[in-house]
């Protein structure tokens, strides 16, 4: 897997790209949860679920279908906390889907472990992307305080944080400019 930090950062960077406003104080934490939740499948190891099983690590919870279900559930869960127009609710769904789906895609860019069940439950194969620049992340926060953990984080910062951070900043600036222009137009 890619690290929990990188999955969380992805959710933060994607917010300016497609998350509706207002309500970011609820929406972004929901995005972070959606982007990290697929790795909850490691709990299965405790109950005898094998790595390669449907519900095993990097299996169903890493699929696009699971991401879609998670997004729909998130929209339903946030319906009272974040009052949105129907269009805003659709964008919230898109944002949560991207957050959850990005998890499987980032894992598919790692150089170890089993592939990712991106197309489950329709197709049970495990996939990697053709480009695998991310070293497999250590499991558990404590293991990041090692030389290997630090190297993994540095690579993730270079390969994921930098381009996604730039994309997020670009959209943030564009949205701010658009809002200012709208306010100017309304005040004329
Ligand atoms: Zn994962």
Structure description:
The protein has 188 residues and is mainly alpha-helical. The protein has one domain. It has 5 helices and no strands. The longest helix has 41 residues. It is globular, with a radius of gyration of 18 Å. The mean pLDDT is 93. Bound molecules: zinc ion (ZN). Zinc ion binds next to α4.
At a glance:
By secondary structure, this protein is mainly alpha-helical. The protein has five helices and no strands.
Q: Which descriptors apply to this entry?
A:
188 residues; 5 helices; globular; binds zinc ion
Content-based structural category: mainly alpha
Mean of all residue-level pLDDT scores: 93
Give the overall shape. Answer: globular
H/E element string?
Answer: HHHHH
Whole-number radius of gyration? Answer: 18 Å
Number of helices: 5
Q: How much helix is in the residues?
A: 55-70%
| Low-pLDDT segments | none
Measured distance between first and last alpha carbons: 52 Å
Counted beta strands: 0
Largest sheet: none
Bound molecules: zinc ion
What is the total domain count? 1
Query: Roughly what fraction of the amino acids lie in strands?
Result: under 5%
Please specify the SSE layout and strand pairing.
Blueprint: H1 4-18, H2 24-36, H3 64-77, H4 86-107, H5 147-187
Helix pairs in contact: 1-2, 1-4, 1-5, 2-4, 3-4
Bound molecules: zinc ion.
